[in-house]
Amino acid sequence: MNIKELDPDSSPQAAFGARLRRLREERAWTQDELGTRMGYSSTHLSSVETGRKLPTLRLARRADLAFGTGDVFEREWREMRRGSPLEGFPEYIEHEGRAAEVRLYEVGVIPGLLQTPEYATVLAESAVKRGAITAEQADERIALVTDRQAALIRTPPPLVFVVLDESCIRRRIGEANTVDAQFARLLEFAEQPTTVLQVAPFDMGARRPLNLPVTVLTLPDRSLMSYAESSQQGHLDRESTSVLPMLTAYHQLQTESLSQAASVTMIDQLRKGTL
User: Domains of the chain by range and CATH?
Assistant: First the structure.
């Protein structure tokens, strides 16, 4: 494919490649020179420039560093990822990063906002072994976990309410040191002045009002938004007629769950092997 055949308007992938090529040519750099600056081969960059290969988050960040473009390429990459199966997720991440309050309920796995890098790596590498994602996509998932957690330490920080189904802490992910570090992370999270951590025990049974993971955001203007995922797609909902009942169910879940003190005790006992 030559320059004439590359249409930036044909797809977000082509637009990314066209921007990469344009900025490179403006600086009179060859693909080899840009490759040296970014840590990629000229063949790889040529495939990205012509839209034959999808850029990764790592490549987008390296491009921003090489060209001094702030986060232009990273934002373009995130926009491009909106076309992924979980199409609501990139948009949700943007809202999560500025939410005043975050309420989340998770089943079976520690949520990304609370995962340690080691825990996230085990999950990502497992997905690679199953053939569900590529090694580069695994790197992107791990990087995204770190990016999302930065939202918890911004000024002012959001209020974060987390309810974990007991399965989240009973399910062992990784070796003993990974499990121990993840438990330590949960206990550290519970100590923060702007967080609440609770466990929904198995014996709640039918009293548990939510059966699937869900997140409810309160935005700075006090509007509400919910996010939930199926196996193939994320669903972002701003309609008060459906979000308010979700918020009510979440409050009911908190009422039926263990207190934070009892939850911390359960996690600590599991960490010590006394439960």
Answer: 3-83 (1.10.260.40), 89-272 (3.30.870)
